[in-house]
Amino acid sequence: MITLRMEFKKIKRKKIGLTMCALICVQFAWLLWSGARPDENERLEGWIFMLYSLPLVSVIMMPTIMSVLASRLADVEHKGNTYKLLNTLRRPGSLYHAKVVCGILFILAVCAAQFLFIIALGYARGYAGHPEWKYYGTAFLMNFACCLSLYLLQLLLSMLFFNQMIPLVAGLGGSMLGLILMYVKMYSFLPWGGFLSAAQVSMDWNPDTRVVHFYYREYSPVELCAVAMIFVWIVVFYTAGRILFTRKEV
Amino acid sequence: MPTRNLVETHNLTKQYGKVRCVNSVNMQVPPGAIYGFLGPNGAGKSTTLKMILGLARPTEGGITLFDVPVNEKNRMKLLSQTGSLIESPSYYGHLTGEENLRIIQTLKGCSEKDIDKVLKIVRLDEARGKLVNHYSLGMKQRLGLAAALLGFPKLLILDEPTNGLDPAGIQEMRELICSLPGAYGMTVLVSSHLLSEIDQMADHVGIIRKGGLVYQDTLESLHAHSKEQIALRVSHTAIAFDLLRKDGIEVTQEGGWLLLPMMDDSHVANLCRELVAQNISLYRVEKREKSLEDIFLSLTGKESSL
After folding, report:
1. Closest Cα to residue A133, out of A115, A107, A148, A146?
2. What is the pLDDT of residues B106-139, one digit of tens each?
3. How would you write chain B as a 3-class SS string?
4. A positions 11-30 inside 8 Å of B (CB)
5. CA distance A111 to chain B (A)
6. B-contacting residues of A 175-234, CB under 8 Å?
7. pTM for this entry
8. Do residue A84 and residue B90 have CB atoms under 8 angstroms apart?
9. Structural domain span for residue A69
10. For A136, which of A53, A205, B72, B192 is 20 to 30 Å away at the CA?
11. Residues of B whose CB is below 8 A from A81
């Protein structure tokens, strides 16, 4: 707990919270724009439409947000050459855990803000009924899991490289890749495609009637494997980061 | 087996690839000493200190701190009694000096009052609220020392603490280090590539060359290695050389000079009279001393950078 508390002391004046807010606001702007001024039919499918939009927004924005978060947390140590001091005060493993938990708390805040905004927006737009909490709860958990896997990957890169441009470029590249994956198919085994794999809502667009219909997906075995892959990535990136952090000589 | 030294290394070795940076070093730092770890750049000083602090894993050999062999389980407990400043100071530039020390104090688990004390010791109490990014290099170095002093550890490990400081800063740092054993009962292990610096600070010295410890003893003993000689410059060097040899004097020739072992004044006067009596003109008579620098160079090799 002490190491975690110090993690927050270290990032004082780094304005990480403000940076996260700014990036989240871009997502909010997107969500505000998409589905603005819904008609009666759209209001009926409003809540499910939000669950459809969320992974699309996340797949593009979250890799960048996670790379910024990890980079900011790791950079304070690189800039001040602090590992050689910290490693004489605390076990490297506990320092790594503090970084992971600190990141998790930020991710939880980002995901919670995202969901609160969606729900508030849905009510403000007058969507029919209420959100289906079972699906919204699952979406929150899967969104968090995808963000965590990306954060652990970015933390690994940020700790590995002194120059933080490399992990940041990787994060931006991940966002681009996610965008491309979105047009290929609704699942991917890559860490950046996790948001799509875990998406619960799919869309049926009739070109003749031009009517869009949203529905909850039935996962095929391959798609289920892609969802499971998100958790595999979490374990892989966490283990790799821990090994790197504890074995690295400074 | 219990030892009386605060730090002991046993055949400590570090190999990177095929290069042995540190080779079977057996360092012994007695309690209360200021141990000067001297060697040219790249000799293996920092690597040795990093291994003692657990920042680098030894390829071979072991370390004993406070009479206890260091292992992965007890490493943090033993290090809680040490303070360190390795190479350059560690700091968070976007925080103030006091905030930096508060983080280290909390992680070390020592008293909050220590922050005020160490800030006074390193004379940073007036700059405590300033962002460290706005500190000068000397101030950062002093902040690093303050961080190492937090908790007033038994052992202080300082790697080139005067690097980058101006002459006044060097003098100040030197005086501060010298005062630590007396004022706080600390043992200081300080490395440097400057002989004069160690000569002015340390009471024990270890000299490392190409990864191997080539000398280890008190500084007094090192000074005792300084050999005094009598040097003569004469008109007929070869004849004088033979004459002195016949008298049973261990004389050597060096650059047109005759070098004789140290002897009392009356003996020197007799020799001079004898040479003049043989029609050998005496140009100069000098007393020569092999300096500490000469000894250092002979131990570390003249090709090494100082």
Report:
1. A115
2. 999 999 999 999 999 999 999 999 999 999 988 9
3. CCCCCCEEEEEEEEEECCEEEEEEECCEECCCCEEEEECCCCCCHHHHHHHHCCCCCCCEEEEEECCEECCCCCHHHHHCCEEEECCCCCCCCCCEHHHHHHHHHHHHCCCCHHHHHHHHHCCCHHHCCCEHHHCCHHHHHHHHHHHHHCCCCCEEEEECCCCCCCHHHHHHHHHHHHHHHHHHCCEEEEEECCHHHHHHHCCEEEEEECCEEEEEEEHHHHHHCCCEEEEEEECCHHHHHHHHHHCCCCCEEECCEEEEECCCHHHHHHHHHHHHHCCCCEEEEEEEECCHHHHHHHHHCCCCCC
4. 12-14
5. 28
6. none
7. 0.86
8. yes
9. 2-247
10. A205
11. 87-91
All structural domains of chain B, each given as residue ranges with its CATH number in brackets, are 7-81+153-224 (3.40.50.300), 228-289 (3.30.70.80)
From residue B154, how far is each of B1, B31, B110, B149 by CA, in Å? 21, 9, 13, 10
- Chain A hits for B86, CB-CB cut-off 8 Å, are 84-85
Nearest by Cα to B84 from B163, B178, B148: B148
Q: Which residue of A has its CA nearest to B89?
A: A81
Q: Which of A10, A13, A87 sits opposite B103 (nearest CB)?
A: A10
- CB-based contact A65:A23 (threshold 8 Å): yes
User: Which residues on adjacent β-strands are paired with residue A114?
Assistant: none
In tens, the pLDDT along B197-246 reads 999 999 999 999 999 999 999 998 888 777 788 999 999 999 999 999 99
DSSP character for B227?
P
Structure token digits, residue A124:
């403000």
ipTM, two decimals = 0.88
**CB < 8 Å to B91, chain A:** 80-82
Is A1 at the interface with chain B, CB within 8 A? no
- Our count of domains for chain A comes to 1
Q: Is A7 helix (H, G, I), strand (E, B) or coil?
A: helix
